[in-house]
Amino acid sequence: MDLSDFRVLSFDCYGTMIDWETGILANIKPWLELRGVRIKDVEILEAFGSAEAAEEAATPHALYPNILARVHDRLGATWGIKPDPEAAAQFGSSVGNWPAFSDSQNALLRLRGQYRLVILSNVDQESFAKSQKCLDVDFDAVYTAETIGSYKPDPANFAYLLEVEQEAGYTQEEILHVGQSLFHDHVPAANAGIATCWIQRPSLAGTHGAAKSPATSPEVDFHFTTLAELAIASGN
Fold it and tell me: Which residue stretches of the chain have pLDDT < 50?
């Protein structure tokens, strides 16, 4: 298997292109400290990953800002803090302020010359539009949890990806899914028979990052630590 075998790169966004760990901590850590709660960054991220997965599974039709607001409430309860609706709402709307990784824009622009670039993200259209402005890259298609009606790792998200890309003229064998999260992306993509490329960004929370840890570690077809490495390996 070679990167030149593919015509479509489907991307996770948060954790892969956008530095969600920095964005999460920038919102949650000061809020905790103002209430006299000192928690290690890794513990915040671990708690976030579990809470986010639980909320996405429980309310698959909820928009991502509402998911994040309820995650905020869960995190507060974890450390004995009463609900704070204003802070929860601010956290829910913070996605557009999460920074891009320094290599994301240039790598994506380089990859555009060789591949169709598609987003498959656990977010809503409005939040992604804000992140897209941060990335300043045009994508050929954007498929979000809002569009699909479920959140990864639900198999429906990858079934949707395959269906719409096949309608656009691309075969399953021509699609490579690129992402950081083993839990959200690599396990369900592998189960769907889609080739995968793991972007293992350095993380305070270990190999699974700010996402929930998967029950099993999936096999991946390609493995890089940055999108820049993927672009270089693709000959761009």
Answer: none
Task: Give the per-residue pLDDT at 217.
Answer: 79
DSSP H or E run through 195: strand 195-199
- Annotated active-site residue in 12, 19, 124, 185: 12
Instruction: Sheet with 175-179: list strands edge to edge.
Output: 141-144, 116-121, 8-11, 175-179, 195-199, 222-224
pLDDT at res. 130? 96
- Supply φ then ψ for residue 177, to 5 degrees: -90, 130
Strands (E), 65-194: 116-121, 141-144, 175-179
CA distance 110 to 46: 33
As to burial, measured by CB atoms within 10 angstroms (0-12 exposed, 13-18 middle, 19+ buried), residue 192 is middle
8 Å CB contact between 178 and 11: yes
Are residues 159 and 214 located together in one domain of the fold? yes
Asked if 124 is an active-site residue, the reply is no
Which residue range forms the structural domain that includes residue 190?
3-19+98-233
88 and 31 within one domain:
yes
Number of domains in the chain: 2
Q: Which residue, 46, 76, 75, is CA-closest to 204?
A: 46
Give the pLDDT score at 45. 93
Residue 44 φ then ψ, to 5°:
-65, -45
Verify that 74 and 146 share a domain, yes or no.
Answer: no
What amino acid occupies position 117?
A: L
pLDDT of residue 208: 57
pLDDT value of residue 32: 95
**Confidence at residue 209, expressed as pLDDT on a 0 to 100 scale:** 61
